[in-house]
Amino acid sequence: MKKVCNFSAGPSMLPQKVLVSIQSKLANWDGIGSSVMEISHRSKEFLMIVSDAEKALRTLLSIPDDYHVVYCQGGARAQFAAVPMNLLGNNTSADYIDTGFWANSAAQEAKKYCTPNIVKVLATVDGKRTVLPAKSWKLSSDAAYIHFCSNETIDGIEIRDLPETNKPIVADMSSTILSRPIDVSKYGVIYASAQKNIGIAGITLVIIHDDLLGKAKTFLPSVLNYTTLVDKKSMFNTPPTFSWYLAGEIYKWLLAQGGVEAIHMKNEKKAALLYDCVDTSNFYLNNIHETNRSLMNIPFQLTNSELESSFLVNAQAQYLVGLKGHRNVGGIRASIYNAMLLEGVQSLVDYMKTFAKDHT
Ligand SMILES: *Cc1c(COP(=O)(O)O)cnc(C)c1O
Question: For 105-135, how does the pLDDT look when each residue is reduced to its tens digit (9 = 90+)?
């Protein structure tokens, strides 16, 4: 069987090594005579998986001791509702930095619970889309927190600077978590759904500063209440055990490769290879300014958009899959998360060059 190179935005590619390893243990995990999917989430075996996973994640991201690590369900979209309901307290407003599709979706959901101050930060410089520097963001004085999306998965826009503020910063890191080092201490809450860089769909990682607990609305469903999640160690209801287990395997795989710093260097190389291919041709186009180009999700267009479907069909025939742009924006998108190897990006670039040559 030829292994495909999967550029899907999520659920996305998993490291081959992890797949093979979990397969070998699937029916009989660690010699216990049953699979990890069949054991109680309260069994000592599963609790060990949980504590090893947390240790690995804390090492990878240098998470300070005054932050809690919990897992929730309902994806990042559930967090769009959980964040305001957990953090507003007596405030009726929060700042929502509008950088694209996902940040805007979070703001729309927040409207059910407060009056979000939607901060416009997108601009066009030299004909390219960019995000204004964080120090120029028009933040309001009565906001309970500042919400932003670190990496716009659909738009291919990444934000690397943070505003100077004493308000809690809440970040949707679904498509960038673990791709580069971050300073967790600068954030109040970090959340990320798992099916991009953490593992498979089913769980959502939430990292919360201790000061932000205890402010939840009384009507908030308990399954989304951060204080309940912390108190019950993410086991208020039965957690998706296999997704959690897999996250732990991915964390260990990252550590074995030298951690987030090492994977970041690889990610820079991969992205540079692809952006360079786009920029040095007249055939392809990415209109995001260099300062905000995403490392993980690289959208591009064909200057002759009529060739798009042929580009996708031929790519598929060469085992390069998942390249169709999001239905809202069209075009092509290559998601090159941590599990994507440099060789995979090289195959795509080789294909792009050949396709361009054959069609000019
Ligand atoms: C994928 C994604 C989401 C949505 O995640 P779900 O798990 O489907 O709710 C939200 N935000 C960002 C930045 C994403 O990449």
Answer: 999 999 999 999 999 999 999 999 999 999 9
In short, whether 197's Cβ falls inside 6 Å of ligand 1 is: no
Residue 302 φ then ψ, to 5°: -90, 130
CA dist., res. 212 & res. 227, Å (int) = 9
The protein residue whose alpha carbon is closest to atom 3 in ligand 1 is: 76
Domain residue ranges of the chain, discontinuous segments joined by +: 9-16+259-358, 30-256
What's the CATH code, domain 30-256?
A: 3.40.640.10
Active-site entry in 29, 172, 244, 270? 172
Note the residue count of the chain: 360
Annotated catalytic residue 102: yes
Task: Give the architecture (CATH level 2) of 9-16+259-358.
Answer: Alpha-Beta Complex (3.90)
Q: b or e along 186-201 (b: 16 or more beta carbons within 10 Å of the residue's beta carbon)?
A: ebbbbbbbbbbbbbbe
Give 53-110 pLDDT, tens digit per residue.
Answer: 999 999 999 999 999 999 999 999 999 999 999 999 999 999 999 999 999 999 999 9
